[in-house]
Amino acid sequence: MENPPMIGKNIQKLRNARNLTLNVLSERSGVSKAMLSQIESDKVNPTIATVWKIARGLGVDLQDLIDSNATPKRKFAVNRSEAIKVLDTAEHGVTIKVFSPLEMAGDLEIYMLVFDPKAVLASEPHMAGTEEFLTVIKGSVKVTAGGNRTELHKGDFLAYHSDIEHAITNEGATQAVISMIVRYTGVQG
Questions:
Q1: Which of 42, 50, 127, 166 could form a disulfide with 186 if both were Cys (CB 3.0 to 4.6 A apart)?
Q2: Distance between alpha carbon 172 and the CA centroid of its chain, in Å?
Q3: For 41, which DSSP code?
Q4: Three-state SS for 158?
């Protein structure tokens, strides 16, 4: 079954409306710039999997690319407290709550981390270009990323590349709580 030729024009229209270059959409979607160009000019018929990647890169629903009359839906996604996942970690004394929905994984992830006194969360390097953004909600923590090291207190914010070994430590005698956002900006396979 062939996809209607309007998909390429819909992609181009949505990309232009968002002021995105082919390079940026390629990075966001994981679809090559050459392939995007061919799809937009209706020279190739993309697979549904490819169209889905492009839709995700544009931040729209798949249907928005298929239906030329569709008005892109504005995102309004609720993740109820009972749906919040708690990750099990090998590190004793660290609780990780995942606030972001599963479809955001590998793109932008939002967490709440609770550290018992003296607890450590050590991480291997993430994908190249990955960044973490921390805000201390309660207590204080020490953050090490490669050769950089700092202590953060309630209300402090830190942005750092996490594509190197990094660790967060609660060296205090009371619980520490931090909000963490992870943004993956590297090339995905």
A1: 127
A2: 30
A3: T
A4: strand
Residues of the chain with CATH 1.10.260.40: 6-66
Q: How far is CA 101 from the centre of its chain?
A: 10
**Model confidence, pTM:** 0.63
**Nearest CA-CA partner of 124 in 90, 101, 152:** 90
Tokens 């697979």 — which residue? 47
Q: Which residues contact 147 (CB under 8 A, 6 or more apart)?
A: none
Q: Where in the chain is the domain with CATH 2.60.120.10?
A: 81-183
Report which of 130, 136, 147 is spatially closest to residue 170, judged by C-alpha positions: 136
CA distances, 12 to each of 24, 55, 124, 171 (Å)? 13, 11, 38, 52
The dotted CATH code for 6-66 is: 1.10.260.40
Determine the pLDDT at residue 123: 93
Among 35-44, 95-104, 109-118, top mean pLDDT goes to: 109-118
Least confident of 79-83, 123-127, 141-145, 172-176: 79-83
15-34: average pLDDT: 89
In the block, residue with structure tokens 């931040």: 59
Architecture category of domain 81-183 in CATH:
Sandwich (2.60)
